[in-house]
Design brief:
By secondary structure, the chain is of the alpha/beta class. The chain is built from three helices and six strands, in the order αβαβαββββ.
Length: 117
């Protein structure tokens, strides 16, 4: 879905819902729907109410309501929200191992994913 202005947020919601998308991915440098933007927060909230989770690439995405984030903005750690109700399944690449450690600052659970040689 290519949305080029904040006015496309409602169209984006409808298209994603009609196409039965599995999740919304927030991108860190998108000019309008980037992680931390007001419009992205609206979109994340509205889609979550319709049962569609969002994922991101930084801790800012978690604050917006994303279920988890992973990427350079997280130090390549999988950050999971502490507001999640239910279960999230993450399929790891072949020969990858996950290490989990609880986070005590209330931001969620951090899982480090490391690929084996």
């Amino acid at each position: 879905m290519d949305a080029r202005s904040a006015t496309h947020v409602f169209s984006a919601e409808a298209i994603l819902a009609n196409r039965q998308a599995d999740f919304l991915v927030l991108l860190p440098r998108d000019p309008i729907f980037h992680e931390g933007s007001f419009v992205a927060t609206q979109l994340v909230r509205d889609l979550a109410l319709k049962g569609m989770p969002s994922v991101g690439t930084s801790a800012a995405a978690l604050q917006q309501g994303a279920v988890f984030s992973i990427g350079a903005g997280t130090g390549n750690q999988l950050l999971v929200t502490n507001r999640l109700r239910g279960t999230v399944s993450v399929v790891l690449p072949n020969r990858a191992v996950a290490f989990a450690a609880p986070v005590t600052d209330g931001r969620g659970v951090t899982v480090e994913v490391a690929a084996l040689p």
